[in-house]
Amino acid sequence: MIIVDDVHKRYQTSHGPGKWILRGVDFVIPPKVSVGLVGRNGAGKSTLLRLIGGTDQPTKGTVKRLCRVSWPMGFGGGLQGSMTGRQNAKFVCRIHGHEYDIEERIAFIEDYAEIGYAFDEPVKTYSSGMKSRLQFGMSLAFDFDVYISDEATASGDAAFKNKAAKAFKDLMDRSSLIMVSHGESTLKQFCSAGIFLDNGKAHWFDNIDDALKAYKDSRNP
Amino acid sequence: MTHYDYFHPRSALSITLSVWNALFLREAVARLSAGRIAWLWLLLDPIIQIGLMIVMFTVIRMRSVDGMSIEAWLIIGMLAFLFFKRTSGQVQNAVGANRALFAYRQVMPIDALLVRAYLEGFITTLITIVLGVGGSFFGTSLLPSDPLTTVVVLFGLWLLGLGYGLVTSVASELIPKVSVVLGIVSTFLMLSSGVMLPVNNIPDPYRGWLLINPLLHGTEAVRHSISPYYHALSGVDVSYIYRCAIVAVFFGLALHRHYQAKLTSL
To answer: How far apart are CA A195 and CA B102, in angstroms?
Structure first.
């Protein structure tokens, strides 16, 4: 269960505090419910995912995570460019307290990412698709209750997308997802509930179809 | 039984310890594998600096400073200064160098800084031992006559480097272009620290001003702890180094506590 309570967020800009991106966001994600986030560009979807994942702190309000939540996957976040893929993977195993079975997990990540010799090259030499593969493999190596995906598969090729879709499906019986995606079919495939972000507020829908409909209506009034 | 009944979060301490372990190994590998002979450069860098200064002083025919040979005077002063310089430099840049890793909520900027300070203290200690023992082979006595004081002072200088780095790391991330000012401050600290310019002959009102710099207390106290025949500057006080260091460390920690969210979200 994840409880988001009256979350406000704005960023510091070079000329003082910026405008409010989130203004009083409230919702509770029950256990095992997968949620899709929809809204126009700049509505605050990625910001909200970062707050849920704990990468960033709300300006006001609280986020409570009563389960194991992954870091936000997508856009190469959480990969240090000067370290190799293997070093990044080891780092993540260690901070998650898996020093004792690190070899099995590294083997899993290397096998899953399928990036060959590049696993031992610095991440800054990777293409965005290779970064996605590595990140995806890294997060699957741990048993999270909730996986956060910010277009995690968007830059992958078809083979990787299929593999990721299969992984998500296999996860469904023990975990759930919070995802941002501009692919309507992806959202419908994996999410049961939906959140429509508009004007700094979040609107919760028990059915993802209703969230997508609200989003569409807001674009063509 | 619901799905989440088995959720037992790790304790804050155990998370912090595993983060420190991960960061330490990541930083150590980065320091030792940056290039083919990175470990050799760690040694060569101070040797070249000290060597150049020894040549310089030999050219102006300076043989000794206050009862200590010029070689010993330079080597000891420089090694003591490095405990401050290397630590503060590494700590100051730790936030930028680990930026991507703050995506994991377990990792805080302060973790990266503390781990870097620890690693740098370790490396500098090794360099000091190697150069200290090595220098002794060449006839310059560098083995301390009062080892306990040597250790206490060097630890104080390391702590001072940590405190200074904690403060400047926040400043250099949050204030644009402040690195220019920090560069000037660091040059001034070095020149007035008695590392390469003897300060004993400076007359009184100015000498008192120089004693505001805790690094001067460090370099002079270490030289005296190595050789009891060295005439250290009067007014040198080891506890002053610690008082400055503790103020700097606590001020730095407070800054990090206050600006933590800003540092991770930049």
So the answer is: 26
